[in-house]
Amino acid sequence: MPRWRWFMAQLTRRLWVRATLIGLAGVLAAILAATVDRSLPWQVPGTISTDALDSLLTVIASSMLTVTTFSLSITVSAYGSATNNVTPRATTLLIEDGLTQTVLSTFLGSFLFGIVGLVVSKTGAYGEQGRTVLFVVTIAVIALIVVALLRWINHLTRLGRVGETTDRVEAAARTAIEARLRAPCLGGRPLRDAGAIPGDAVPVSLEAIGYVQHIDMPALSTLCEAHGTEAFVRAVPGAFAFPDAPVAWIARPEAETDREALAKDIARTFTVGNARSFDQDPRFGLAVLSEIGSRALSPATNDPGTAIDVIGRSIRLLSLWARESAAAPDDEPRYPCVHIPPLAAADLMEDAFMLMARDGAGLIEVQLRIQKGLSALSRLGDAAFGEAARHQSRMALDRAEAALALDADKARLRALLKAPSP
Q1: The sheet that has 240-241: what strands, in order across it?
Q2: What's the pLDDT tens digit per position in 335-347?
Q3: pTM of the model
Q4: Domain 185-273, architecture per CATH
């Protein structure tokens, strides 16, 4: 995905963008109604008194200001609840929730429509046709408010809840996994061995310190093709970047090129932020799910059921990765000049299960679900995927044997591992 498209996707998830657009629509509707007398070629039937119109606009303006303030306080409380009960990393998904942003923006836009319409009306700018048209628009705004309120009431019953937030994290992780499966190695060639990087390659470093959030693959590929070179990327989205660690290397160009200038151009294709992003980073979604399960196992929460639910979600996501990634790719890479390390099955397994296996080591119900899930995953995918699942299974068993108090529970886990696969 080009950087501008990624930037626009990030921008449209901001609440202020949607609120600004809908607010401007409300203001323009109130102002344009004043020009109806001069612009409409026909006579609008009906006559609406100024007092009746002003009364409706006053009700909308006063009530929507209260509703908007109250809704914002509820939303902020839901964010705090998700931060305390789920994980702070999942709060981003709640902030970017489209329905919440649309409802709040509708309330704000209705308030602006009412207050601007009332101001223009007091100036006497509305003629008979203008008042009639504004009355029709006001009825439409009231209908939008009613629909938004009904959707908001239904949405508030789930906003900030553990299950709802976990659903969002799973959906974000699934979207990232499916995107990576459609474009393995982000569309570049797989870089499986660091020894494949030429010894005389020029390192590319970043001035910023933070997490790689996005790589502009089209721009990176275009730079490599224009200079007859290849790029070997080491810092994939989700990696922590700092000036002393190269994020990529450039092979020797075919023609005379200012390699330092090219390195600076390539560095600009990397976007670095203070936090990881779900978009190009499937591991982040699995790690956040694992955080939710780990927090549920803390003594303060003591909710093994949520951890078991998270284990099931992680198994579902990893089984999708195993089935699709094991198939041979049909197409040539879109960016053959760019080499990127593929996602390692061992890293995915560790992100998904290590925290819960550690924090739930003393809970037999959690350990049984982990072992059953890893046993199922070990029979999927390629050999590396199966070995990664078996490695996490052995580590979980070692932790459980060190933490479980009853020998009967330990024997039950060992018997589960020795049981033949169905």
Answers
A1: 240-241, 210-215, 270-273
A2: 989 999 999 999 9
A3: 0.85
A4: Alpha-Beta Complex (3.90)
